[in-house]
Design brief:
Helix content is 35%, strand content 14%. By secondary structure, it is α/β, with parallel strands linked by helices. It folds into 2 domains: 19-50 and 80-208 and 243-413, Alpha-Beta Barrel (TIM Barrel); 209-242, no CATH class. Strand 11 (266-271), helix 10 (277-287) and strand 12 form a beta-alpha-beta unit. Helix 3 runs parallel beside helix 4 and helix 3 crosses helix 14 (367-375). The chain starts with 10 loop residues before the first helix and ends in an 18-residue tail after the last strand.
């Protein structure tokens, strides 16, 4: 190494790229599949006003008086009703387990998380690409995850949602699930859903990215883009999946296709944190989606380019701000609006209640669910949810309210948003 130094410049990052080449675009390959990553706390993506939100109780609480009269006594936090309905499913609290897919960490913990989520009666999303390379009935594959979830599911609560990406569509995943006899009880009880994955928070605009060795690269070469992702002498290749192409018409047609072809399944749509996310959400609901889910840029991934984690996509607060006004539009009163679900760095009730006050209906546990299950395979997720429920009840009660649906924007104060809203509907150039 030379004696050259560059004070104030990210010298080590440049040297890392000089050593590794294209491999340095990603985190250390040793973490691939064994970690769930998201935007670093010191990046642009992490500057989310939702993290600085404060819940502000009023002095005068007319709803508390109403509750007092109903109960014939002073209400406590234990009188808060956290039960609600999201995406077509009845749930005991405003939580669901958001998708994680086929990487090693997801596969290892999928059955553990599924069993605990089922026992809790909270919905679970099975991530896309679970079928690829595993078969439909092996290990922790798709049907294994469905079975572990439904085995302990309480009567009338929860539901499981099977996500499908462009790659999964080639395998006809939804068709195979919908027609499988083992899924009939879920269908008959209205507790099966399908989620169309348009994109995700950690890498909006990109499809799946998987590290493989030379042998696997040759096997995938006929069906996927495969590029060397390492320096000389290394045996790492990058297998890329297409992200799918969507326009307003394609999204509308796909949702209507889902409703027509799978009439007994709930329809969910997962959107990336794009600048037109509010328009996409509105269209999805109008086409008949039961739920729209959105990852903020904080959302986790098994693997993604570092520059995407750090610099691409809107933070969750901005997604909530843009979609919330559409979701609460008075002109849609009396219609089936569908539900608005969000995820990204959710693990405690403060951030979650703030998001729900601003318009979300429930929040997804992703990385937090995996960490909890890793800590305690028997009760970790249940304990995490127990803590969340107590915090949520305390916070909502402090606001003088006793149901999720009573939360309003006036309950939270935020710093000014640094994210301007583009005027997407105006075709004139802006100078």
């Amino acid at each position: 190494m030379s004696a050259l130094h560059a004070p104030g410049f990210p010298e080590e990052a440049v040297r890392d790229r000089a050593r590794k080449g294209a491999r340095a675009v990603f985190l250390d390959e040793g973490a691939y599949g064994r970690a769930v990553i998201g935007a670093r706390a010191d990046t642009v993506s992490a500057r989310d006003p939702l993290d600085l939100a404060r819940l502000i109780p009023p002095v005068f609480m007319p709803r508390r008086l109403e509750k007092l009269i109903d109960l014939a006594g002073e209400p406590l936090h234990s009188d808060v009703d956290l039960s609600t309905r999201i995406g077509g499913f009845d749930v005991p609290c405003p939580l669901y387990v958001s998708a994680f897919g086929s990487t090693q960490v997801g596969a290892d913990l999928a059955l553990v998380v599924g069993a605990q989520a089922g026992a809790l009666g909270i919905p679970m999303v099975v991530g896309e690409n679970v079928v690829a390379g595993q078969g439909l009935r092996t290990g922790s594959s798709l049907f294994g995850r469905l079975a572990s979830y439904t085995a302990a599911l309480p009567e009338g609560l929860g539901g499981v949602v099977v996500q499908q990406s462009t790659e999964d569509a080639d395998a006809e995943v939804w068709n195979r699930v919908y027609s499988d006899p083992s899924v009939t009880p879920l269908l008959e009880s209205g507790r099966l859903g399908f989620e169309l994955k348009v994109g995700q928070g950690a890498k909006p605009g990109l499809g799946g990215l998987t590290l493989v060795d030379a042998h696997e690269a040759r096997r995938y070469a006929a069906t996927h883009q495969v590029d060397q992702a390492s320096g000389p002498g290394d045996d790492l290749w990058l297998r890329s999946s297409t992200p799918g192409t969507f326009t307003e018409e394609i999204l509308d047609q796909q949702i209507r296709f889902m409703r027509n072809n799978f009439p007994r399944a709930r329809v969910w749509v997962k959107l990336p944190p794009g600048r037109d996310v509010a328009e996409a959400a509105r269209m999805a609901w109008e086409a008949g989606a039961h739920a729209v889910t959105v990852d903020g840029a904080e959302g986790g991934s098994g693997w993604a380019p570092s520059v995407f984690l750090d610099r691409v996509g809107l933070p969750l607060h901005e997604c909530v701000r843009r979609i919330g006004s559409t979701h609460a539009d008075p002109s849609r009163a009396g219609t089936d609006r569908g539900t608005f679900l969000v995820s990204g760095r959710m693990w405690e009730a403060g951030r979650a209640v703030a998001a729900m006050a601003l318009g979300a209906d429930a929040v997804g546990l992703g990385r937090a669910a995996l960490i909890a299950a890793d800590e305690d395979p028997e009760n970790g997720l249940a304990n995490l949810v127990s803590a969340f429920r107590l915090e949520a009840a305390l916070l909502i009660s402090a606001l003088g309210k006793y149901a999720i649906g009573d939360l309003e924007p006036e309950d939270v104060t935020l710093p000014p948003s640094p994210w301007p809203t583009p005027i997407a509907s105006d075709p004139r150039p802006v100078f």
